[in-house]
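To: structure subgroup
Subject: Chain for Friday's discussion

All,

I'm putting the inputs and outputs inline so they're searchable in the archive.
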Amino acid sequence: MIYILIMHEVNLRRLDLNLLVVLGALLDTRHVSRAAEQLHMSQPAVSRALGRLRDLFGDSLLVRGHSGMVPTERARDLQQPLADALSGIARLVAEPGFDPTTATNPVRLGCLDLEAAIYLSPVVERLRAAAPDMPVEIHSHPDDYFGLLAEGRLHLAISGLEPRQRQAEFHRRVIDTTWSECLMSRDNPLASGAMTLERYLRASHGVVAITGKGPAIMDQRLEAMGRTRRVVLRLSSFFNVPDSCAGTDVVFSLPHRIASRLARDPLLVTRPLPEALQTASFPMYLYWHSRHHGDPMHQWLRSLAMSGAADMASDPEGEDERIGGSQTIP
């Protein structure tokens, strides 16, 4: 950020750092009123600050679009350096270290409902014991967790997916490896006999559509093979899967950890995928954004989260990494 200001020969002694805080809120919310609410300022004061910011940077920064205000290219280029700069300033003036026994700020974690039950239960147990006055908020609604991490609305997220944009802003650690398998009623015809590709494709399939958009990953794989399956049911939650399987002919293809958890119901069974659809295991990641990477509280939280997931972690001693390349989820 300092580099950007020097390039424009801005006198740092005359720069109001509060303007940068307002800019950060505006770029996060893309809305003057919501930025004002977040900053505990009046809307006119934020509007005036936006005018000063436009003069400072020589750019509109935010313009009206079809669904609200959208950042200009200049603003998009500023967003990450600005977040890093504000985070660095906060660390500069903050008291060193972090004491969980006296912490009262909320911890915000994100993952899907059943993944929360599988992976976050031991994390919450350890967190409550170490930081009894620190509230825990678990966001388990289907959503763009990467966007929430980037906006600072989540501290950590668990996912087997990867961000589609701005990948270099995120860090991650493998906490588990799993694979896909079938979950169905014990009375389903597919519960016995050879699990061939043809039998699998003739079955009635259910899909958990987390985002509600686009085809399931299994359907994308089948399309690449020139094959299709018959999807008769789409759900938005894993917890609705058992009732949808029991006593029906519906088959779900799910990650092993989730299928095993749901198969505790005595009416359900799991079976391997047809050999043609079996792939190597794939990772589940703990994700966080660069804006929190050096924060003492966040460093403590990440260590606690990894400790809580150690029973399932395939590589508990693995290294944190910036995202590079892509990962295909079966």
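Points worth raising on Friday:
The chain has three domains: 2-93, 107-178+282-322, 180-277.
The CA atoms of residues 209 and 215 lie 8 Å apart.

D.
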